[in-house]
Design goal:
It is a single chain. By secondary structure, the chain is an alpha+beta fold. The strands form 2 sheets. A 3-stranded antiparallel β-sheet has the order 5-1-6, with no helix packed on it. Helix 1 crosses helix 3 and helix 2 packs across helix 3. 15% of the residues are buried.
Length: 202
C-alpha cells in the first residue's frame, strides 16, 4: 500500500536467515514492507525469465497484427511505450515459480492474510532498455479515518515483488519506500507536484 518508484534499489531490510516468519510479518505491518532473500531458486528464476521473454515477444506480435486485444495481456503502467505490465498465464514455468514462492513465504503469508485471500494479479514488469524511470506513486489506496484503520487488522492487499535477474540503473529498478502505507504519507505525496515527488526520498 506504500509508495514505489523505478530508481536505484533499496538496501536489505531483512533476510530469510535469522528472522522468524512472525518477525517478518510484523515488519510488513509496521513498515509496510520487508525483504526476503532466495524465494526462488536460480534455476526456477532463469526458467521463468526465459518464459517471460518468449511470451512477451509472442504477445506483442499478436497485438501488432490485431490477433489479440492489448487489454487482455497488458496492465496499465506509466511510460507504457517502454514499460509493460505483462499478465502471465498460470501454467508451466509460471505455476512452478508460484508454488515455490508460496512454499518459501507460506508461514509469513499465513500471518498476514486469511484463508479467503485471493490472487488478484500475476504479472511480470518488463522494461525496455533506456526506459524512463517511474515517478514515485502508490499502487493502492489506504483506509482513511481512525475507525477504518482500527477495523483493518490485515493488509487489504499484499504484493510480492520478485526480481528474476540482477538489475542495474539502466533497467529502471523498482524500490518500495518503508513507512508510506499510511494516509498521512499518501496525503503528503498527493500534495506534491508530480515532477517533485522523487524528492520525497531524500
Amino acid at each position: 500500500m506504500g509508495f514505489g518508484a523505478s530508481i536505484i534499489g533499496l538496501t536489505s531490510l531483512t533476510g530469510r536467515d535469522g528472522h522468524s516468519e512472525s518477525a517478518r510479518a510484523e515488519r510488513v505491518r509496521a513498515r509496510g514492507l520487508t525483504r526476503v532473500g532466495r524465494v526462488l531458486s536460480r534455476r526456477t528464476a532463469e526458467r521463468l525469465r526465459d518464459f517471460v521473454h518468449s511470451y512477451f515477444e509472442d504477445v506483442m506480435s499478436r497485438i501488432q497484427y490485431g490477433l489479440d486485444d492489448k487489454k487482455d495481456h497488458l496492465g496499465k503502467t506509466l511510460y507504457a511505450e517502454q514499460r509493460f505490465d505483462l499478465l502471465l498465464p498460470i501454467e508451466g514455468a509460471v505455476l512452478v515459480a508460484l508454488h515455490e514462492v508460496v512454499a518459501n513465504l507460506g508461514d509469513c503469508l499465513k500471518e498476514l492474510v486469511t484463508p479467503e485471500a485471493e490472487l488478484v494479479e500475476l504479472a511480470a514488469l518488463v522494461s525496455e532498455p533506456g526506459s524512463a524511470r517511474q515517478r514515485m506513486h502508490p499502487d493502492t489506496m489506504v483506509p482513511y479515518g481512525v475507525e477504518a484503520r482500527a477495523r483493518q487488522t490485515r493488509p487489504p492487499i499484499l504484493t510480492v515483488f520478485v526480481a528474476l535477474q540482477d538489475v542495474d540503473l539502466a533497467m529502471g529498478p523498482t524500490i518500495m519506500v518503508p513507512n508510506t502505507h499510511f494516509p498521512e504519507a499518501h496525503d503528503f505525496l498527493n500534495r506534491l507536484d508530480p515532477s517533485a515527488r522523487d524528492h520525497f526520498l531524500f
